[in-house]
């Protein structure tokens, strides 16, 4: 976390002020939500946005990321700063359009909603459905402070304003976490509580303000496969390895209000979200509004298939959203993608999504929404839509959105949502112009650009061998593979000499003679949220297995086969269909419920197979039904990794190689000695539909999710502390108190120049977060392994980097530790090494980084295009920050990673078009100075920045801060320092917390709470004046406010406010709302 974030925290957590935005209301005050499935402690519903504390805005608003949450907190005087605490008191500017929603059959209404039709604005009908969700959120949260009428107008005028890249605030309805990314978030919350406690305030004030769902799904590994007890054995190993971090998450589930933790073994986060957690429409205390979600996993977009707006964000952004802060985002363009026709017989949703990914990648949709429409939508099941939405990160869009229609309602009923909930969803969305009825003529909507696909043109395909958008049609697979063997090393090449391409490596597999060649499959995994949520492809795979078994086909015993469903529902319908036994017969036993091979948790290959691959330099293959196949991700020994539908995974497992033409070559020999071809085992679309109809039933979903929060026996037996503060264990190698909040000072630092920095790493194109962030297994020779060994951890207990994300010491050592890292410094050598420029030593990246830090040198990174593509991993930014990296200069960045870099104080710079390190003659051996303005007020989004080197080179880059940056430092020094001192010496502090929190008392200050006004109803301050005979209290208060303002130095750029004006703002902790003139200081 950047120094500014730490300093903001240190200034804002004392005595209830800074925690104002992080205070949860008592659960007893919350009205039940008819559409909210999880049992959770819910804060009192609010019709207004929560106030922006300096603490939370500092967390959300990055110094160099430029989010308005931080920038705008510094653009006015103390009066404005204090005013933020009362934004919850403001009357919503659009309350006049608050409308009741009647039930279809009459009777009590569902609730009230902010009606878009009531605006009578013809522009609404032309808006894409996805933009209407942003519009409704802005209207519902409009207080002319955090969200302004001008923000609403920007969205209404989307057609004209989006091309201008205007900035808007957005408040998601909830936050979604998985355990890899969730542990660091909970660690940060725990640290915040410690900071509150150290400053003498109530740590219980730190709680999520919006519903937070955390699903533990990333920890299970395929240690045991091809065994009937594989799932239980892997679960036991999972708990053995992760008992400490599971205990930490279980502590968090009870320590923090409004947080639901779904225990291990329940399923994959995105499938659980789709089948259970998603509301589609919230009914929160009688106020109806669309469900929306941000998640710390990039594939949060899967929920877009259900008509819920959702996308991946960095962990810091997610934490800010958890604390009730609006996200700052550029109003996106929307690509309209029209679908027509119907998929041909035998073509799967996986084939469709790989085709869509290639089309959209070519079109260019980074930073945009993609919205699907057209009659072809009615031909796609909800699960098919979710498959397409899931891979939004792969095609580069913020989300791939499918508006709600009849198919959505059918899915809600199928998955066990109540009839009343479904009726409410339909009634609300129809009433608010957010529902698509394919039986009616749709009003013409406007999009930023248009694409069209006839579904009949989609062909069976795969993607690979190293990137998800490198689609290969099934009929061209063999020729493409041979081309990859011939081509130079790259995304489509392995540079295997012609004379070596036919090499056969013989080995003994548990006493059985075996052999392996280039292209032979060693991993075949049915895995990942992308496909395991789709009954059509899952039951399709089972039908392939059935036909193969009936013909007597087998899978070679050294191929590691696995099946990891995304929820318990999958097992139920596989059992109901009677098809699971055929998958078992081919070795596709269930190995666990969670992300496995898709995220690199594929487990070890058999030692004999590993030896045959490494000793003979075999290009071995993995075929998986995942969404990512970047080099080094699936398994260190599978250089070729292909994404395919679950039925194709089974087919390639049977064939045993990707070097095959399914049209001309047999996949095996039947029990009666006949050749069996692909067409002999491939099921028809009608066969699959028949099995789906008879086997996938609503009761399966209901029974699965009724007990989901009860966990399993191993989870229930975990004993955890009941303390509100986490008892940190200094010896822990899993959960470590991070350094971000330590040694905080009362004085925030100003921008620090990057001068004479050395280049730590010199990269080419497509460096992914898999290359940067610690991921996969911990290599025994790595700095992280050394750290663990020094603390008595045996190699067998190293676990994965992902499981140790709660320990910054290990994660810093694992940054840039990918064994497939290509660093230009190494002149063709591949691996996690670099050159320490001053000495010329070749060192592990971490060791070189520490050497630079110890010598007092800054470092930068040079990179090519698409730097940071892939999963939205915080540690891809946190790790470099801890290693001392100050700037990344690249041709282009992935959106979330760029935001994360800025959030950690690392400056993202883009070469100008046509420039890169090579064209500029940069070798990386130079020393770099980034001429960024030292005055924050001079830093502007997208401005030109000059970079010079010690050998006389000079070039211009674009500063990739894409939102506003305003003066911050002197103001915070002058005001927050004074405020914090006042809070620290006051036993209970000014009762801003009470005033904000519905008028309830801050802990230990009941009288102060009463002053907040009954039930949080604030009086207008211009109606309040000191009463005669009040002992001069009002007059004293006025003088006190004037004194605080007058102490602000002129150089802070703060306009002084006269005492008479201040009295308009303060009276007994009641604060008047900020008017339009103060919008620039809103924390948006």
TrEMBL record:
EC number: 4.2.1.3
Family recorded in the similarity comment: Belongs to the aconitase/IPM isomerase family.
Protein species of origin: Miscanthus lutarioriparius
NCBIfam families: aconitase_1, PRK09277.1, PRK12881.1
GO molecular function, one term: metal ion binding
Chemical reaction(s) catalysed: citrate = D-threo-isocitrate
Entry-linked InterPro entries: AcnA_IRP_Swivel, Acnase/IPM_dHydase_lsu_aba_1/3, Acoase/IPM_deHydtase_lsu_aba, Aconitase/3IPM_dehydase_swvl, Aconitase/IRP2, Aconitase_4Fe-4S_BS, Aconitase_4Fe-4S_dom, AconitaseA/IPMdHydase_ssu_swvl
Enzyme class: lyase
Cofactor(s) the protein needs: [4Fe-4S] cluster
Low complexity compositional bias, start-end: 19-45
Region named Disordered: 19-52, 996-1053
Keywords: 4Fe-4S, Iron, Iron-sulfur, Lyase, Metal-binding
CDD domains to which the protein is assigned, alphabetical: AcnA_IRP, AcnA_IRP_Swivel
All copies of domain Aconitase A/isopropylmalate dehydratase small subunit swivel, residue ranges: 785-913
The protein, known as: aconitate hydratase
Domain Aconitase/3-isopropylmalate dehydratase large subunit alpha/beta/alpha residues, every copy: 153-656
Record flagged with keyword Kinase: no
Biased composition (Basic and acidic residues): 1019-1045
């Amino acid at each position: 976390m950047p120094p500014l974030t730490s300093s903001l925290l240190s200034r804002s957590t004392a005595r209830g002020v800074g925690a104002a935005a992080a205070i949860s209301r008592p659960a007893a005050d919350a009205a039940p939500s008819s559409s909210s499935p999880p049992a959770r402690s819910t804060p009192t519903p609010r019709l207004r946005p929560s106030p922006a504390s300096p603490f939370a805005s500092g967390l959300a608003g990055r110094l160099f990321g430029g989010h308005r949450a931080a920038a705008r907190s510094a653009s006015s005087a103390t009066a404005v700063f204090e005013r933020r605490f009362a934004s919850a008191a403001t009357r919503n500017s659009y309350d006049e359009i608050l409308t009741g929603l009647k039930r279809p059959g009459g009777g009590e209404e569902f609730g009230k909603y902010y009606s878009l039709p009531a605006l009578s604005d013809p522009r609404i009908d032309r808006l894409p459905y996805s933009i209407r969700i942003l519009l409704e959120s802005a209207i519902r949260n409009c207080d002319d402070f955090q969200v302004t009428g001008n923000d609403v107008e920007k969205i209404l005028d989307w057609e004209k304003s989006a091309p201008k890249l205007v900035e808007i605030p957005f408040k998601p309805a909830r936050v979604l976490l998985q355990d890899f990314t969730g542990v660091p978030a909970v660690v940060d919350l725990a640290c915040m509580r410690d900071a509150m406690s150290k400053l003498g305030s109530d740590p219980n004030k730190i709680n999520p303000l919006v519903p937070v769902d955390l699903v533990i799904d990333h920890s299970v590994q395929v240690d045991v496969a091809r065994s009937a007890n594989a799932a239980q054995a892997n679960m036991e190993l999972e708990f053995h390895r992760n008992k400490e971090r599971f205990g930490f998450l279980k502590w968090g589930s009870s320590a923090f209000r409004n947080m639901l933790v779904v225990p291990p073994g329940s399923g994959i986060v995105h499938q659980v979200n789709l089948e259970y957690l998603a509301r589609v429409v919230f009914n929160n205390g009688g106020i109806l509004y669309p469900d929306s979600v941000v998640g710390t996993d990039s594939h949060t977009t899967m929920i877009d298939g259900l008509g819920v707006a959702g996308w991946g964000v960095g962990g810091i952004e997610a934490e800010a959203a958890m604390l009730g802060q609006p996200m700052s985002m550029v109003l996106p363009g929307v690509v309209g993608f029209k679908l027509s026709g119907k998929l041909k017989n035998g073509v799967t949703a996986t084939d469709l999504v790989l085709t869509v990914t290639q089309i959209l990648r070519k079109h260019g949709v980074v930073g945009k929404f993609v919205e699907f429409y057209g009659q072809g939508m009615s031909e796609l099941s909800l699960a098919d839509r979710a498959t397409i939405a899931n891979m939004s990160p792969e095609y580069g869009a913020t989300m791939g959105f499918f508006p709600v229609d009849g198919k959505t309602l059918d899915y809600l009923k199928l998955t066990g949502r109540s009839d009343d909930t479904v009726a409410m969803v339909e009634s609300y969305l129809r009433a608010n112009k957010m529902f698509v009825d394919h039986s009616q003529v749709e009003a013409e909507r406007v999009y930023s650009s248009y694409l069209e696909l006839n579904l009949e043109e989609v062909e069976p395909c795969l993607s690979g061998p190293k990137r998800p958008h490198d689609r290969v049609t099934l009929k061209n697979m063999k020729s493409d593979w041979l081309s990859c063997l011939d081509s130079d090393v790259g995304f489509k090449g392995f540079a295997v000499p012609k004379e070596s391409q036919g090499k056969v490596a013989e080995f003994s597999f548990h006493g059985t003679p075996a052999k392996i060649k280039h292209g032979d499959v060693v991993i075949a995994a049915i895995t990942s949220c992308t496909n395991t949520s789709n009954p059509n492809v899952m039951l399709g795979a089972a039908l392939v297995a059935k036909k193969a078994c009936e013909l007597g086909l087998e899978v070679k015993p050294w191929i590691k086969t696995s099946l990891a469903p995304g929820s318990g529902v999958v097992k139920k319908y596989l059992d109901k269909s009677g098809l699971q036994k055929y998958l078992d017969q081919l070795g596709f036993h269930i190995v666990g419920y969670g992300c496995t091979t898709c995220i690199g948790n594929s487990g070890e290959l058999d030692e004999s197979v590993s030896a045959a691959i490494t000793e003979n330099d075999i290009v071995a293959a993995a075929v998986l039904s995942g969404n990512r196949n970047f080099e080094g991700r699936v398994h260190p020994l599978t250089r070729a990794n292909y994404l395919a539908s679950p039925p194709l995974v089974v087919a390639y497992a049977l064939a045993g190689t990707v070097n095959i033409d399914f049209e001309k070559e047999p996949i095996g020999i039947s029990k009666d000695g006949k050749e069996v071809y692909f067409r002999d085992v491939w099921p028809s679309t009608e066969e699959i539909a028949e099995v789906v109809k008879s086997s996938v039933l609503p009761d399966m979903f209901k029974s699965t999710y009724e007990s989901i929060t009860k966990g399993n026996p191993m989870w229930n037996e975990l004993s955890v502390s009941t303390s509100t503060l986490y008892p940190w264990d200094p010896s822990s190698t899993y959960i470590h108190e991070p350094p971000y909040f330590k040694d905080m000072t009362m004085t925030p630092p100003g921008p620090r120049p990057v001068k004479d920095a050395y280049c730590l790493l010199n990269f080419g194109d497509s460096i992914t977060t898999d290359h940067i962030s610690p991921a996969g297994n911990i290599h025994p020779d790595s700095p992280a392994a050394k750290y663990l060994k020094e603390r008595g951890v045996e190699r067998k207990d190293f676990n994965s980097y992902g499981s140790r994300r709660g320990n910054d010491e290990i994660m810093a050592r694992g940054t840039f530790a990918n064994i497939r890292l290509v660093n230009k410094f190494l002149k063709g050598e591949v691996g996690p090494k670099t050159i320490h420029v001053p000495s010329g030593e070749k060192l592990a990246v971490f060791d070189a980084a520490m050497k630079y830090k110890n010598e007092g040198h800054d470092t930068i990174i040079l990179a090519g295009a698409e730097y940071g593509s892939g999963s939205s991993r915080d540690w891809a930014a946190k790790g470099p920050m801890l290693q001392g990296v100050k700037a990344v200069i690249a041709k282009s960045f992935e959106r979330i990673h760029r935001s994360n870099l800025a959030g950690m104080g690392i400056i993202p710079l883009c070469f100008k078009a046509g420039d890169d390190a090579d064209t500029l003659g940069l070798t990386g051996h130079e020393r770099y100075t980034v001429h960024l303005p030292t005055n924050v007020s001079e830093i502007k989004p997208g401005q030109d920045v000059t970079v010079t080197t010690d050998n006389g080179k000079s070039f211009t880059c674009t500063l990739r801060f894409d939102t506003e940056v305003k003066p911050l430092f002197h103001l915070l020094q002058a005001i927050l320092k004074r405020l914090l001192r006042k809070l620290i010496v006051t036993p209970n502090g000014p009762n801003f917390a009470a005033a904000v929190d519905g008028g309830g008392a801050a802990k230990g200050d009941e009288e102060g709470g009463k002053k907040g006004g009954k039930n949080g109803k604030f009086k207008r301050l211009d109606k309040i004046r000191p009463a005669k005979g009040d002992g001069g209290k009002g007059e004293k208060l006025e003088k006190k406010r004037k004194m605080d303002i007058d102490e602000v130095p002129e150089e802070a750029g703060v306009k002084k406010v006269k005492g008479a004006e201040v009295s308009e703002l303060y009276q007994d902790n009641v604060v008047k709302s900020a008017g339009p003139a103060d919008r620039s200081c809103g924390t948006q």
